[in-house]
Amino acid sequence: MSDTPSLRTEFCGLELGSPILNGSGTFDAIAARRVFGDEAVRVGSFPFGGYVSKTITEEARVGNPPFRTWETPAGMINSIGLPNLGLEGFLEAQLPELRELPVPLIVSVMASDRDGFARIIGRLSAAGGIDAFELNVSCPNVHSGLIVGERPEETAGLLDRLRPLTERPLIVKLTPNVASPELIASAAEAGGADAVSLVNTLKATAIDPDSDRPWLGAGSGGLSGPAIRPIALQQVRAVAAEVSIPVVGMGGVTDGQSAYDFIRAGATVVAVGTENFRDPLAGLGVMRGLEEVLREKGVEDLGAIRGNTLS
Predict the structure, then answer these.
(1) CA dist., res. 70 & res. 179, Å (int)
(2) pTM exceeding 0.90
(3) Residue ranges of the domains in the chain?
């Protein structure tokens, strides 16, 4: 066996140097380059095998009112509210720089209806330089009033609308706030999704002990970090057993062992989220930690351990 196990991973036709991604909105590659220079985004120093952008919406958003975060004993509640420059702002100010990253670029998008998603995907596909799309489906459909990612028929309908618009991989980001995420994942696969990603944050709130009122400006938010890892592992395991498309596993990944656990549960790649706020180089630490775990266990091929011996 090689002293350094190979972490190279094929994901939706993309060749990744490692199976470690960032969670959307948890790592700003453009800001990292401005602060730390070009070295921050070079091969060997960039902390991820693929980069997921912050979620883009058609119109610019300022996000939720403060306060936006609350630290918990084993994680964080956030209520950021998807602030972004909007589609045209992204195309003009951010996409050119993101194209220069040394890894595949996955752009996360969200809209309030199928036509909105279609306009974004169409415009971004025409712009080029994007390797895949992540569909953030936690927004209510304005026509039906239903959360797209909470109803199989809504998820399938969205994929039916989007699949003909692009040959790029479509990754559906699932919510954990449903009884059976595997039903949503199966609907996404049936509609033509190339992969699913889970878990997003769990609904949560925090009370300010001084005012006895909700701390977060929006009243509530989403819990992430190690606190949700056992739930995330179970949902990844359940979904991976039901679908044949790749699964992106996330939810409390902090080190090599937790990344290994998600791969054992069936994930093809793993995303680091909340840990990036504590350490911008967390992705490198997770990658090196995963190498060490594989070395200790005598594993050369990630595919050999991916979910197939968990019973």
Answers:
(1) 26
(2) yes
(3) 9-65+81-202+225-304
Distance between CA atoms of residues 287 and 169, nearest Å: 24
Burial category of 224 from C-beta neighbours within 10 Å (exposed 0-12, middle 13-18, buried 19 and up): buried
* Spatial CA neighbour of 172 closest among 46, 162, 95: 162
| Catalytic residue (choose from 7, 139, 232, 247) | 139
- The verdict on whether 12 is a catalytic residue reads no
* pLDDT tens string 99-110: 999 999 999 999
Residue 276 contacts residue 282 (beta carbons within 8 Å)? yes
Q: What is the fold of 9-65+81-202+225-304?
A: TIM Barrel (3.20.20)
Is the backbone peptide bond immediately before 277 cis, with ω within 30 degrees of 0? Answer: no
Residue from 178, 174, 200, 172 nearest 80 by CA: 200
pLDDT tens-digit profile of 172-196? Answer: 999 999 999 999 999 999 999 999 9
Residue 93, class by beta-carbon neighbours within 10 Å (0-12 exposed, 13-18 middle, 19+ buried)?
A: exposed
